[in-house]
Design a protein that fits this description.
It is built from ten helices and eight strands. It folds into two domains: 155 residues, Nitrogenase molybdenum iron protein domain (Rossmann fold), CATH 3.40.50.1980; 116 residues, Rossmann fold (3-Layer(aba) Sandwich), CATH 3.40.50.1980. The strands form two sheets. Strands 2-1-3-4 form a four-stranded parallel β-sheet, with helices on one face. It has a four-stranded parallel β-sheet with strand order 6-5-7-8. The N terminus is likely disordered. By secondary structure, it is α/β, with parallel strands linked by helices.
Length: 297
């Protein structure tokens, strides 16, 4: 009789509170773009977070104990790779998470600007393994999505087909974004562009834009007066209408160029603003709209 009463009480509790929900797979990514894509692939089965803030320099992130704690509770860590987020290694090591699966999301990407020969300090902040800003080509977003899906399948095999299906859906959105960007750039009066840093090489290559000059004379080195004077000549000669400049760089050089040439300085992060499933794609729309607003169409 007592056993029956206990059984009835347990059943009543389950009816009142429902069956226990499955624990979500926790994912930490170095940057918001990887986290956004992971959110789209993982859906309700995952919980995502990102380390680097979207408006901060992803090359230089202070290693904090709170990051280690966050990673200690994660199942996946998504790295950009190619030397951009080397700061992630001490975070991962400090997490003491033996169950963590670290994923290099650059796997399968056609890498641009890989230097040949010896790389030394005279070349500035050059990445020996190539330009790491590959997420700015939406076609690479599809590659990232499939890398994430394969990693999730390893830690959560019962949902492997679901992750693969969502990755395919992300790939279709990436294709649509590429088509939208190609049409938007096709309407521009000029495809010439100036950038502050070489963050935008994949974006330019994807949409057939020509980066005619960078505000930095070499990566990581602020512009000199002589370099800016030369750059003014290039902008005027090529009739360049827009420059892409991340918010964490000094505004001084861009403001000078704008005064002297009338070029429009678009202060837009190289990373998406949030980690929701749509943020990766919203960022591209912001870029397309910015180029159009610069008077290029």
């Amino acid at each position: 009789m007592r056993a029956r009463i206990i059984s009835i009480l347990v059943a009543a509790c389950l009816g009142a509170f429902g069956a226990p929900t499955a624990a979500k797979e926790r994912i930490v990514a170095s940057i918001s773009d990887l986290a956004s894509i992971a959110a789209a692939v993982g859906g309700d089965q995952v919980e995502v977070a990102a380390i680097a803030r979207s408006n901060a320099d992803p090359h230089r992130v202070e290693v904090l104990p709170s990051y280690m704690v966050r990673v200690s509770r994660a199942r996946l860590y998504l790295k950009v790779g190619l030397g951009l987020d080397a700061w992630a290694d001490p975070i991962i090591d400090g997490s003491h998470n033996s169950e963590l699966l670290v994923v290099d999301c650059s796997k399968g990407v056609a890498i641009l600007e890989k230097p040949t020969g010896k790389v030394d300090a005279s070349m500035g902040d050059v990445h020996p393994d190539g330009n790491p800003h590959y997420w700015l080509d939406p076609r690479n977003g599809a590659i990232i999505a499939r890398n994430v899906a394969m990693a999730l399948a390893r830690v959560d095999p019962p949902n492997a087909s679901l992750y693969a299906s969502r990755a395919d859906a992300v790939a279709r959105r990436c294709d649509a974004t590429f088509a939208r960007g190609s049409a938007a750039v096709g309407a521009l009066a000029t495809r010439d562009l100036v950038t502050y840093h070489r963050s935008w090489s994949y974006f330019a290559a994807a949409f057939d834009l020509q980066v005619v000059a960078t505000i930095e004379p070499i990566p990581g080195i602020p512009p000199t007066a002589r370099h800016l004077n030369d750059l003014i000549g290039v902008i005027q000669e090529r009739k360049v209408r827009a420059a892409l400049e991340e918010p964490y760089f000094s505004e001084d050089a861009g403001e000078l160029l704008a005064r002297q040439t009338g070029i429009r300085i678009l202060r837009i992060p190289a990373m998406c603003a949030d980690i929701t499933a749509d943020s990766y794609f919203t960022h591209f729309e912001q870029l397309f709209d910015g180029l159009a607003s610069a008077g290029g169409s």
